[in-house]
Specification:
Layout (H helix, E strand, L loop, with lengths): L1 H9 L3 E5 L2 H9 L3 E5 L9 E4 L5 H14 L2 E8 H4 L7 E4 L11 H13 L6 H8 L5 E4 L5 E2 L11 E7 L5 E5 L15 H27 L4 E2 H9 L10 H18 L3 H12 L6 H12 L11 E7 L2 E6 L2 E9 L4 E4 L12 E2 L3 H4 L14 H4 L3 H11 L3 E10 L5 E7 L1 H7 L4 E7 L7 E8 L2 H14 E3 L3
Parallel strand pairs: 1-2, 5-6, 7-9
Antiparallel strand pairs: 3-20, 4-8, 4-10, 8-9, 11-12, 11-15, 12-13, 14-19, 16-17, 18-19
C-alpha cells in the first residue's frame, strides 16, 4: 500500500473538479492540471409523475415524437374571414396571450387601428381607436384560432392567409403574408402607404400566389415546408430573423407554377420583385409550419413540453402540451438590440410577436449556430450564436430528427422545451426578434436578442409541483 501511495504521488496529478470553481483555482495556482466541470444541484425537485401516476418523461417523449412526425405542407390560401373557422368581420386576431385594448402596447394598438381602417370599419385612425375601445370589436390571440402572426400579429377578416396542413395528423395552421420591414402594419405602423401595400397584397400578390399553390397541389407536388426549413438551416438561415435562403427556396419552388398560372406577365413580375426584395417573406410560413407541427402535441396528459411561446408587447405567455388551454404569463422583456439610425433603446417597445413559435418548434433562436450571419442583424458574434444553441440543449428533452446543424456535426436542433428543465437549471429560452417603436404608427426601429422571462416558467412549475408527485433524482 505504501509503495502504491509513493508511486501515485510521485507522478503529476490530473484533477477533475466538479462544482466549486475555487477548488479548481487552487489546484491551478499550484501548477496542477485541472479539468473544471460546471455543475450545480438542481434548483428545484425533479418531477417524475403526475398525481394520477402518469410518467412525465414518457408523456414528453410522446409529445416530441408527434412534433417530429409532423409534415407541414403549404396547401392553399384564402381570406381570413372565409378560411379560418369561426372568424367574423369584427374579430381582430393579435399576437401573444389574451390582452384587452386598455392593456395593449403602442405598436399593437397601432396595428389594430390600421386594420380597422383597412377593413373599412373606420374612416381614420382616431375613429378606429374609438371603435376599438368601444367594446364592439372582439380581440383574440392568433393561437386560439390555429394561427400565428409576427410582431403585432394582426389578422383581420379580409387579410389573405396561408393555409398549412400537417399531412401526418390532418390539422391546419394559418399565417398572414409578410409585408417586409420598416413602416409596416405588423410593427404598428399605419397610414396611406401601409394601406396601399396591404391592398396590393390582397388584390395582386394573394391571387397570384394562391393560383400557383393550388396548381402545385393539383399536380401532386405541394410545397413541403419541413424539407424547405431543413434546407434553409443548411444554407445559413435559422428561419426566424434570417430567412434569405428560405425565401429564395420558396421563390424557386413557386416560379414555374406562377409562370404557368398567371395570365399577366407584369403582375407576375411585380410578385417576383416583391418577394425577392423581402428576405423575411418566408418567416410567416416557417411560423405556420411550426404551429402546424406543435398542435398535435396539445392535450397529451402529463407532458411538460411547451407548445406555445408568444408575446403581445405587454405580456409573455407560454402553454404546455399537458395544459393546452392555460396561459402562464409574465411581463414582456426588453430586447437587447441594434437600432436603426435615429432610434435608440428609449424608443423600443417590449418584446412582441408570435414568431417565437419557431424556437418552440426547434429552430429560430435555438438554431442560431446554423446562422452565424444573424449576428449582423441582432447583435453579438458567431460564437454567441453557437453558444446560444448549445445552451438550449440543456432545457430541451429531445433533438429534432429533421432539422440539423452543420456546425455541430449535423446534430439535431434542440426540441421540446421542458418546463421542468428550465426550473431545474435556471436557463431561460433565448430568442431573437425585431423591435417595434413603443408608440403607435411608427414601425420597426431595430432587432436584437433576449431571454424569456423567468416568472411564467416559475408559475407553470409551481402548478406542476402542486399537482404532481415530486421525487429528487
Amino acid at each position: 500500500m505504501g509503495t502504491f501511495k509513493q508511486e501515485l504521488f510521485a507522478r503529476p496529478l490530473a484533477v477533475i473538479n466538479v462544482g466549486l470553481h475555487a477548488f479548481a483555482e487552487s489546484v491551478a495556482a499550484q501548477g496542477g492540471a485541472v479539468l473544471d466541470i460546471e455543475w450545480r444541484p438542481p434548483l428545484v425537485p425533479h418531477l417524475r409523475h403526475t398525481a394520477s401516476g402518469l410518467d412525465m418523461d414518457q408523456a414528453n417523449a410522446r409529445a416530441v415524437r408527434r412534433i417530429n412526425d409532423g409534415r407541414p405542407l403549404l396547401v392553399g390560401m384564402g381570406l381570413a374571414g372565409e378560411t379560418i373557422p369561426a372568424f367574423h368581420k369584427r374579430l381582430i386576431l393579435h399576437s401573444g396571450p389574451p390582452v384587452t385594448w386598455e392593456r395593449m402596447c403602442g405598436p399593437q394598438r397601432g396595428a389594430v387601428m390600421g386594420a380597422l381602417v383597412y377593413e373599412g370599419l373606420a374612416k381614420d385612425e382616431d375613429e378606429a381607436a374609438q371603435l376599438a375601445s368601444s367594446g364592439s370589436v372582439e380581440f383574440a390571440p392568433c393561437h386560439h384560432f390555429g394561427a400565428v402572426g409576427p410582431m403585432a400579429g394582426i389578422i383581420s377578416a379580409s387579410m389573405p392567409v396561408f393555409v398549412v396542413r400537417n399531412e401526418t395528423f390532418g390539422n391546419l395552421a394559418f399565417a398572414s403574408q409578410n409585408e417586409g420591414l420598416g413602416r409596416v402594419l405588423r410593427y404598428g405602423a399605419f397610414g396611406p402607404e401601409v394601406y396601399q401595400r396591404l391592398r396590393w397584397m390582397r388584390e395582386t400578390l394573394y391571387p397570384t400566389l394562391c393560383e400557383a399553390i393550388v396548381h402545385l397541389g393539383s399536380i401532386g407536388t405541394p410545397i413541403d415546408l419541413r424539407v424547405m426549413i431543413s434546407q434553409a438551416l443548411h444554407m445559413g438561415d435559422e428561419c426566424h430573423n434570417r430567412n434569405r435562403a428560405g425565401t429564395s427556396l420558396l421563390l424557386r419552388a413557386l416560379t414555374p407554377a406562377i409562370l404557368r398560372t398567371c395570365p399577366d406577365q407584369e403582375r407576375a413580375a411585380q410578385v417576383f420583385e416583391f418577394i425577392e426584395r423581402n428576405d423575411h417573406f418566408f418567416l410567416n410560413l416557417s411560423m405556420a409550419a411550426g404551429k402546424a407541427c406543435l398542435m398535435p402535441a396539445e392535450g397529451i396528459e402529463g407532458s411538460t413540453v411547451l407548445t406555445v411561446m408568444a408575446r403581445n408587447g405587454t405580456d409573455f405567455g407560454i402553454r404546455m402540451a399537458g395544459r393546452p388551454e392555460r396561459w402562464f404569463t409574465a411581463p414582456a422583456g426588453i430586447v437587447n438590440g441594434l437600432y436603426l439610425p435615429g432610434f435608440s433603446a428609449e424608443d423600443a417597445n417590449p418584446d412582441i410577436g408570435d414568431s417565437s413559435i419557431t424556437e418552440t418548434a426547434g429552430y429560430g433562436g435555438f438554431a442560431m449556430a446554423s446562422a452565424p450571419a444573424i449576428a449582423k442583424f441582432v447583435g453579438g458574434t458567431p460564437q454567441d450564436a453557437l453558444e446560444t444553441t448549445e445552451a438550449m440543449y440543456e432545457i430541451c428533452c429531445a433533438e429534432h430528427q429533421h432539422y440539423t446543424i452543420p456546425a455541430l456535426n449535423f446534430r439535431g436542433t434542440p426540441l421540446g422545451i421542458d418546463v421542468r428543465l428550465v426550473a431545474e437549471t435556471g436557463i431561460l429560452p433565448r430568442l431573437n426578434t425585431g423591435i417595434a417603436h413603443r408608440k403607435p404608427g411608427v414601425g420597426m426601429v431595430g432587432a436584437g436578442v433576449l431571454r424569456a422571462p423567468a416568472a411564467c416558467f416559475q408559475e407553470a412549475f409551481e402548478v406542476l409541483r402542486h399537482d404532481c408527485s415530486p421525487r429528487a433524482e
